[in-house]
Amino acid sequence: MCSWKITLVPNSRHAFTRKQKEEQGRYTSRDHTSRSKQALIRQLHSLLLVIVTKGILTIVSRLEWSAATPRNREALSSPAQRVIIHHTALANYTNQKQCMDHLLSIQRLHMKDRDFDDIGYNFLVGADGTVYEGRGWGVVGAHTKGYNHDSLGIAFMGNFNNDAPSKEAISSVKQLLHSGVFQGFLQSQFDLFGHKDLGNTECPGKKLYTALPQLRTTR
Ligand SMILES: [Zn+2]
Fold this sequence. Notes:
Helices cover about 30% and strands about 15% of the residues. By secondary structure, the chain is of the alpha/beta class.
């Protein structure tokens, strides 16, 4: 098994107030409210993502890629202790429009064929470094059997058995991890794994697995 203990020190410039954290907690808790309220919550959640990452990282919200409403959302009971890296093992698109279409097909695959409540990953990243909101922060994912309740699942879009991940995608994921620590959704000391460290799979592909040490560094 190969894992790294990573320490990211929250930056006070980005640190959220207690009230804001409580509000974020509400957005990610189990939600049985009306559709319109759910839509408002998603909009506010997306707005928070933009505020936190403005000028640093491009995150395409669920609203922007027209995600279907999840059947259920279960909140993580505490900040994630692990980050688990995956690849989608599908086509590698650079164009945002193609990526967004692709996200819809991944969500359909996960919800219809695999009977998941939503797209399985918390976030996905394209080759151009654009990050796409999957289940988002603080939500239990469906990506690594036995480890979904204390982790954050991030998928690189593409097949990385033969192709190396782009510098842009690596850089964006590092920024996303910083953002997660700043917002209190990820513990400042978290373990980073490739999916294959925790399950019988080739995911995230040989070349991406080899590149994982690049996510260790905090610069
Ligand atoms: Zn995987």
